[in-house]
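## Example pair
The file below holds two records. Each record gives the amino-acid sequence first, followed by its C-alpha cell line.
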Amino acid sequence: MEIFDHSICDILFNPIMENRNSMIESARLCYKSVAKTVEADSKLLKNCVQKGHWSPIEHSIVKVRFVCDRGISHELVRHRLASFNQESTRYCNYSQGRFGSQISVVKPYHIHKDSMEYYIWRKQCEDAEKAYFDLLELGITPETARAVLPTCLATTIDITANLREWYHILDLRTSRQAHPDMRLTVHHVLSVLSDDYPEIFRELYLERNREIMEDFVKKGE
C-alpha cells in the first residue's frame, strides 16, 4: 500500500496572456472603451471584481489536476460550473501491475505519524486493501469490489473552469469552515492564481494567509 503524506495539485493549462486579453476585451466591450496602458487594463479588471461585475472574468479558462483522497474529490465535484474527469474505481483494477498491485491512500492532515491514531488508520486501510484483493480473487469485478475501499483512497481528478468559478471554489474551500485537508489541497492553486491574476485573487490570498497565521499563533498558545 502506498501512502501519500498530502494531496498534490498541478496547473495543467493556464494561458495567462490569452486569459487576460480575453477578460479585458470583454470588459471594455461593455463600455466601448479603448485599451490605453497595461496599468489601465489592470485597474479595469480590479474594478470589475470590486464592483461584482464578474461576467468579463468568465471569459477565461484554467485546468488543474489534483491527486487527493476521494472525500476531497466528492466535495470538489459539487461545484456546478466546471468540467471534471476522474480516475474511475469501476474500471481501474488496483491489483494490476500498472498500479503497483496496491492501492494508494492519502494520510489525513490531523493524523500524525508514530501516533496511535496513525496506527489505527493505517491498519484499517491495509485491511481494506486485503479485502479488496480477496474479492477480486474470488472473481468479483472492480466496480463491485470497490465497495470496501476507504474514503482516503487516492484519486486523480482534472477540473477545468473559468476564473470566476475558480474564485468561487477557492473562496469556499480555503475558508476556516472548509475541511483541513481541502484547505491544504487547494491553497497552492490560490497561490499560483494570485501571482498570475493579482487583480482577481490577491486580496483573497492575503486574507487566507492572514487567517492561517492567526490560527497557527492561536494553536501555539
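Second record, same layout:
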Amino acid sequence: MEGQSLATSIFRRIPSGIRFVCLVAAMCSAALFCNRSAAQDSANEPVYPEIGPTTHFLDHDVLIAGFAESGWYKANIPFIDIPDKQIQEVYYYRWRTAHEAQRYTGEKNGWITTEFLGPISYSAPYGGISAAAGYHIAEARWIRDTRYLDDYINYWLVGDGSGPKPAEDSVNKNTTDWAHEYSFWAATAVLDRAKVTGDFAFATKLLPQLIKFYNTWVAAV
C-alpha cells in the first residue's frame, strides 16, 4: 500500500496534459498488443476446406469419438456406413493413424507423411520413407484438402525426398537418392490419385519427373 501511495503521489505531480498523453499512449500500446495477439491466434488456427452443402445420414461425432482435432476429419475424410462394427472401427482408426502421421516440414517441402511417429535412422529428410509412399498416396487420395498429397508427391519427385543419399548398405547401397531407397509405384499412385481429384494437370506436370523416377530403377537393375 505504501508503494501504491508513493506511485499515486508521483503521478499526481505530473502536469495533467502530460498525464493525458501517457494515458493515450498506454491505451494504444494495449490495443496494438491485443490486435497482434488476435492475429497470431488466427494464423495458428487450422484451415479446413469448405465441405459445401451435403446430406448427413451418419453421426460423425460418434464415429470419430475421442479423436483429437475432430474438425479435420469432418472436413477431409469420407464417412461411410459399414455394417460390420469391427471393420468400421478399423476404418476410422486407420484414418486417425494416417492423420497422426502427417508432418509439416516447412515452406520448402510442406506436408509429408511419415511411416513411424518417431525419428528413424534410415529415413529421408524429415522422416520420409519411400517404402510406404505408394500406400500413403493411395490412402490419402481421398482427403478433400489436396495440399497434403500435392506436397508429399512433390517431396519425393522434386523435393528433399528426391535428394542424394549415401550408397551404403543400411540405406540401400545400390541407389543414390532417397526416393529410390525402397521401391514404390509412383506413377500408378499419382494417376490413381488424379482419378479421384480430377486434377490430371497436376499429374501430367510431373510426367518428366515420373519418367526419370522409372528410368532410375531401370538403370539400377
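Notes on the second record: The beta strands are 102-104, 111-113. The chain has a mean pLDDT of 84.
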